[in-house]
Structure formats: structure tokens, C-alpha cells
């Protein structure tokens, strides 16, 4: 049992170290995937488009760096900026969303990449605290299982 807990503890520790060391690559990869999701965005029920809409609605953002990122997409040429960028769903018409100058007043202008990464970084202290607490419990479990094993081994040859 101590070996199993030690193995799990080491796996979690290695994952945390790798995540910390490669955090810049993770950000770069996220940004490129977000750009691909914008480029391939469509109205059909595909997961990437739904994820983009959810991020834009939840974080009140639009595009990767800003709302003008949509201007280079095929979706913009056909339908304008998506409805998920609108500040108010009632005040956003398709004509407004096709004109970048009018859209600037009706959509969120901040990009999603900065908001997502800053939100993740602000929550990292909570994740680190929870992870540290779990690691402490694992270490206590490892120590107690080693003590139990030692106790069983020492008392194995006693007369009953």
C-alpha cells in the first residue's frame, strides 16, 4: 500500500513540475488552438465552436487578442461577428455584427486569450493549496502504512 501511494505521489509531483516548467508552451499551444477554433468556427453543433461561444459568453470577451480577430475568418465574411460576443443579445443585429465599426460598440472588445490565462493564473493558488493538502494526506498514509508494516513484521515471530 505504501508503494502504491508513493507511486501516485511521484506521478502527481512529476505532473506538477512538468506543468510548471512547460507553462509557456501550454499558453502558446492554447493560443494557437484558440486561433484554429476561430478560423474553423461555424454555426453547426461542433465542440470547438461551442467552446468558443462558452468562453466568450462567460468571460465577456471576443476573439483571441480582440474582437477584430474575427474579421479574418470565413464566418465573418458570411455572418459577421458571432452573437456570443454581444454585450446585449437584444441590441445585436446581424447587420451591426457585419460592420466592424458598429460592432465595436455592441460587442466585447477584449480578447479571450488574456482573460483565460489571467483567470487560470489567479486560480492557481487555490489549485496549489488543494494539491498540497492532498499530498500531505498521501504522505501521512505512506508513513502510517510503513509503520503498520513494520509493526506486523516485528510481531511476526512472537509467541502467542
Automatic annotation (TrEMBL):
The keyword Ribonucleoprotein does not apply. Its main location: membrane. It is found in: Membrane. It comes from the Eukaryota. One of its GO terms (cellular component) is plasma membrane. The lineage of its organism: Eukaryota, Metazoa, Chordata, Craniata, Vertebrata. This is Tetraspanin-7. Keywords: Glycoprotein, Membrane, Signal, Transmembrane, Transmembrane helix. Pfam families: Tetraspanin. Residues 1-19 form the signal peptide. May be involved in cell proliferation and cell motility. The keyword Ligase does not apply. InterPro entries: Tetraspanin/Peripherin, Tetraspanin_EC2_sf, TSN6/7_LEL. It is a multi-pass membrane protein. The chain crosses the membrane at residues 126-152.
